[in-house]
Amino acid sequence: MSSVDRQDAFAIFSELMLRDDYFLDSRGAYVGTQSGRDAAEAALGDALSLFVDRPDYGFIFMAFENGKPVGGAAVSYAISLALGTVVAKVEHLIVTESRRRTGIGSALIEELAKHLRLIEIARLDVDVHVKNQAARDFYLGLDFEPSNEERMALVL
Fold first, then answer.
1. Handedness of CA 18, 22, 23, 29 (dihedral sign)
2. Which residues contact 38 (CB under 8 A, 6 or more apart)?
3. Are 95 and 85 in contact (CB under 8 A)?
4. How far apart (Å, rounded) are the C-alpha atoms in residues 114 and 120?
5. Using one digit for the tens of pLDDT, what is the confidence trace for 50-86?
6. pLDDT score for 118
7. First and final CA of the chain: distance in angstroms?
């Protein structure tokens, strides 16, 4: 991710972190007492720096339309005990509000899956907010399988 890509990623993910009702509803579980726009922007900047400095942790996968960023996925790696290999997790997926329901999200996930297969990642995981039926339907439509688990967080 170059500095230009970093600016695009910051713009895309700021939209999610500062305006998405589902993200904001879960924010307390993920960040504890940190709150407010400044804290969110600082955390996003730190996260993007980690993606640049530590590509072994994961990467940002972006979608562009006519040279402008219209979507992105923050992808992190983990080791699956069930599969005995490395898997990836979409930590956050965002498509700009004006471009939602146009196929960009589906194309982004499909291209991401192709990329992950090329680098021999065995599975792609995603969490969906329990009240976000549209996101649930989106992922089910892309052949994701429900895991019948609920994500929990402990801020350390």
1. positive
2. none
3. no
4. 10
5. 998 999 999 999 999 998 999 999 999 999 999 999 9
6. 97
7. 28
SS3 helix, strand, coil % of the chain, rounded to 5?
Answer: 45, 20, 30
Please say whether the structural domain 3-141 has been given the CATH code 3.30.450.40.
Answer: no
Helical (H) or strand (E) element with 86: strand 85-95
Backbone angles phi, psi at 134, to 5 degrees: -60, -45
The CA radius of gyration of the chain, in Å to the nearest whole number, is 15
pLDDT given for residue 2 in this prediction: 54
Rounded CA separation 61/63 (Å): 7
Instruction: Estimate the crossing angle of helix 3-19 against helix 36-53, to 10 degrees.
Output: 140
Segments of the chain scoring below 50 in pLDDT: none
pLDDT at res. 35: 67
CA distance 92 to 76: 10
C-alpha distances out from residue 116 to 19, 29, 74, 111, 141, Å = 29, 29, 13, 9, 19
**Sequence-separated (6 or more) residues with CB below 8 Å from residue 137:** none
User: Does residue 88 sit in helix, strand or coil?
Assistant: strand
- The backbone torsions φ and ψ at residue 62, rounded to the nearest 5 degrees and listed phi first, read -110, 150
